[in-house]
Amino acid sequence: MRRQLRWKLVVILALVIGASAFAWVPPLADRLGLPLPRVLAERRLSLGLDLSGGVQFVLRVNAHEALAVDPTVTRDEVVAQAREAVDRRVNALGVLEPVITVQGDGRDEIAVQLPGFTDVERARAILGQTARLELRVVQDAPSAATTAVVSGRDLRRAWLTRDDFGQPAVGFSLTPDGARRFAELTSRHVGQPLAIVLDDQVQSAPIIESAITTGEGIIRGGFSLLEAADLALLLQAGALPVSMTFLGGTYVGPTLGASAVEAGLAASASGLLLVAAFMVVYYRRAGVNAVISVAANLALLLGLMASLGAALTLPGIAGLILTIGMGVDSNVLIFERIREELRAGQPVRRAVEAGFDRVFLTILDTHVTSLVAAAFLFQFGTGAIRGFATTLSLGLLTNLFTAVVVSRTMFEVTLARGRRMALGSGWLSGLIGRGPADLMAYRAAALWASAAVIAAGLTVILVRGVPLGLDFTGGTAVVAQFDAPVREDDVRRAIPGPVRVQRYGAAADRTLQIHVPQPAGASDGDDAATPRVIETTLRDSGLPASRIVGATTVGPSIGRDFQRKGAYALAGALAGITAYLAVRFRPSFAAGAAVATAHDLVVTAAALSVAGYDLDLNVVAGLLTVAGYSVNDTIVIFDRVRERLRALGPGAVGAAINAAVVDTLGRTIITSGTTLAAVLALYMFGGTALEGFAFTVLVGIIAGTWSTVFVAAPLAAVLKRSGARQSLEA
Hey, what domains does the chain have and what are their CATH numbers? Predict the structure, then answer.
């Protein structure tokens, strides 16, 4: 092996092991009881509420305080403002993807579920403190301060600092308007005390020695370092509109259910092992290279997520699945191109070099379009959508490295050792690679069939609709106490319709919190969502004896603002992809890709409606996966079309598209088949909580494979010919 290649291999191994250490070293050290370096202890991969559970707090919003001051404001407005302030504070705490809902018969309680958060007292203090800051000039004593001229609303920034004596303090800067009023105030009252008041308590009252024109100051109060840091966090996040009363807190289990998480992990592992086995059987030694490349991609991705302090949730896992699928697809593209070069009579080393070089632009295009989509999703989305976008973005970057660098290095190592490079399994390769020579001959029938499917799908959606799940509608939360241990999945199966079941309190208490959706057109308190109905259902289900110990009305965890931002994010992502394809390829190609993606989403939504699945966050994660998968599939064919056009000439669009579809048919079957097998394992063995997600992706893969071959490419050809005829007529 050449020295340069050896060093290249060492650098890759060091990079993969070093970056992935953030993901695997902390849990290993915890298990063995070993100390951790600070950089690893502070940055580790955490799990979201849907996978690991966390703590739940309930706070009552004292809306009457605001109503007494301003009778024109409504209770709902005050509660909404309080919810937004709590959301900002939770995000400032560093808790990723919390669940915040409005509940209670008076709709004046805010339930906050924090995944993986353990410092209960600190969270309670931060979430419940009003943090109303005021700066007042003192006339005779701190208790006789004048009306505040500057308040927390004028704050631009707050930060942890130290005072002149080295004690922890909070620095702050004011907005331009606040700084102007502060300068006028201090210039008029030189020599008088200035009271810094927090929640009607004077923290300090320093003497104004001269006019303060910088718009900056320091709050002292004998704080500890953590207290000063928390106060800076509160001031930066903004004050609550009113005070809040802490009603209690307890542990809650994962929203998917512990058994569902275990089943999902086992099913995912089985699916990935199945994909790895196929790659090795089909591509032999090259398949081993692909498995190592995808494993390195997964290790790097998890390491990067851990180093950034990201939380892994189900939408994040959806991004992970899409990343792994694109990783497998990248290797399949490379291998199929190498096989083409070998069939053309190229020597092995030159065929490998040509395979990687010619496929690089295709891989780059698929990744850039997905990054464009992820950027829109992250910019305009919130919560779960951002989690998906973050995982996908990091995964795309790591996949580019592993597919282009790691996989190529593995080939170079194999060739340097003089080993024979096998890239096929004989009869299996021939069977998968076969297909009609002229697929475009069926384009008219295929397009009409797709149009009929879309029309039928839209009809189903308009007539039956896609019912909204708990995340969008809210409903009733019932706390049930069982006399014997019971599994979340068993309770979920016992109650008809969509339901979310969580452990509530310690697992040994045998207490579960059951969320039931609000029926369409029903109001709070309707029989269909009452605790009595749930109690009767549980009693008749054959489960251990139980009793209802609490119930409350729960609002949606995904508010209208989230829904609006999510719609903007998806629309922006599709528009960005279309614009990129129009510039990178041709407008007709961009139109074909857009219609194909819309086709896949409509077909999937219609299938969800027919199958009776509700639209919740799990299904949203599946739909995002489908959109990304569909675009990736289409670009692979379009890149080959562009290559064929260079050889056949710009006028031979139909022939180029047909040749491209036939050339990539084997790759389409392999990529779709392996992804389908992995998701099928999740659907069959992942438990009821993951069924909606797995079903969505299953239908999307099938629809995406069809649209790639029979919608995107034929439509691009039709539009191109139509444009050419119009140009000639003009």
Answer: 13-42 (no CATH), 46-128+248-252 (3.30.70.3400), 133-239 (3.30.1360.200), 258-420+437-464+561-729 (no CATH), 475-554 (3.30.70.3220)
